[in-house]
Design a protein that fits this description.
The protein has 276 residues and is mainly alpha-helical. It folds into two domains: 74 residues, no CATH class; 174 residues, Orthogonal Bundle (Hypothetical protein af1432), CATH 1.10.3210. Helix 6 packs antiparallel against helix 7 and helix 6 crosses helix 12. The protein is globular and about 55 Å long.
C-alpha cells in the first residue's frame, strides 16, 4: 500500500527518531499510521484526471502476514502503538463498567462513544444505544471474531437483545443494506482485500440474522459503527451513565471477581501484565 513517507516520519519526530526505533516499533507505528489514514474521511474524486482508488486483493493482504512482528487479531492492551507498553493505572478493588471505560478502554472508547452518541441522536432504542456503546470494547482483549467475544463477555450483564446486537454486528458488516443506511465501506476493501469473500460461517450467520426478529438491532449497530470515526468529535461517557444504570447489571463484587463464566475475560483486561 502506498503512503506518505514524509508525513509518517514527521509524525514520529523525523527520520532520525524513526531510525532509532526498533524494527517492531517501526512496524507497529506504520500499521497505526495506515489505519489512521483509512479511518479519515477521504473525499471521492471524479474523473478529472485522477485515477480511481486501488484496493489490495485478499492475496496481497495475506502476503503481509510474514512481514510484521505481530498478528492483526491481537488485542489493544497487549501491544503498543509505538515503542514499549506503559504501566497501566490500577483498577479499584470492585471495578465497574465505567472504571473499565476510564482506565482500560482507551483505544476503543472514543469510537464507541461516537457510535452510541449517533444512535442516540438518530432516535434508537436504549438497548441499541448500549450495544453501540459496548460493541467494540472487547478489542482491547482480542480483535478476531470480536462480535462473538464481545457478546460472551457482556452476556451476564445485559439483556439478550443487547448481546444479540453485539454478537451479530460483526457478520452484518460485510453485507450492504442500503434500505437501512448501510453501504459496504472502503475501509474493509483495504483491510480485507477488494475481492474478499466472508468465510462460510459468516455467510451462514448473516442468513440466519437477516431472517431473525431482532435483525434491526445488530444492523443499527453496523450503521452507527460505520459513521463513528469523525475527527474532533468527543462525546463524554456521562452522557450514557443513566442508560448503563438501567440496562447493565453491575456485579457487587466488581467485574472480574463475581465468579461469572466470563470473569477471567475482565481480569485479563484488568491485569494484562500477569505472566500466567
Amino acid at each position: 500500500m502506498e503512503f506518505d513517507r514524509r508525513a509518517f516520519f514527521a509524525g514520529l519526530g523525523g527520520a532520525g527518531a524513526v531510525m532509532a526505533m526498533t524494527h517492531e516499533a517501526r512496524a507497529d507505528a506504520l500499521e497505526d499510521f495506515l489505519m489512521q489514514q483509512l479511518n479519515e474521511d477521504a473525499s471521492h474524486r471524479g474523473d478529472g484526471g485522477v485515477a480511481a482508488k486501488k484496493f489490495p486483493t485478499a492475496a496481497e493482504i495475506d502476503a503481509r502476514i510474514e512481514t510484521q512482528p505481530f498478528r492483526r487479531g491481537l488485542g489493544n492492551l497487549f501491544r503498543a502503538s509505538s515503542g514499549n507498553v506503559k504501566h497501566l493505572a490500577p483498577l479499584p478493588a470492585k471495578p465497574t463498567l465505567v472504571d473499565f471505560f476510564k482506565l482500560r478502554f482507551s483505544a476503543t472508547s472514543n469510537h464507541v462513544l461516537q457510535s452510541a452518541n449517533r444512535a442516540m441522536r438518530t432516535g434508537q432504542s436504549e438497548e441499541v444505544i448500549l450495544a453501540c456503546l459496548l460493541h467494540d470494547t472487547v478489542q482491547e482483549l482480542i480483535k478476531v471474531d470480536h462480535g462473538w467475544w464481545g457478546a460472551q463477555m457482556y452476556e451476564p450483564y445485559v439483556s439478550e437483545k443487547v448481546a444479540f446486537a453485539i454478537r451479530y454486528h460483526q457478520a452484518l458488516r460485510f453485507y450492504e443494506d442500503t434500505a437501512h443506511g448501510y453501504v459496504y465501506p472502503d475501509l474493509y476493501r483495504n483491510m480485507f482485500g477488494e475481492d474478499y469473500k466472508p468465510e462460510p460461517y459468516i455467510e451462514a450467520t448473516y442468513k440466519m440474522v437477516r431472517n431473525h426478529k431482532w435483525y434491526l438491532e445488530p444492523r443499527m449497530v453496523t450503521v452507527n459503527d460505520l459513521y463513528a470515526f469523525e475527527p474532533g468529535v468527543h462525546p463524554q461517557l456521562e452522557q450514557f451513565t443513566d442508560i448503563i444504570g438501567r440496562h447493565f447489571k453491575q456485579p457487587k463484587e466488581g467485574l472480574g471477581f463475581d465468579n461469572s463464566p466470563v470473569a477471567h475475560m475482565w481480569r485479563s483486561m484488568a491485569m494484562p501484565d500477569h505472566p500466567l
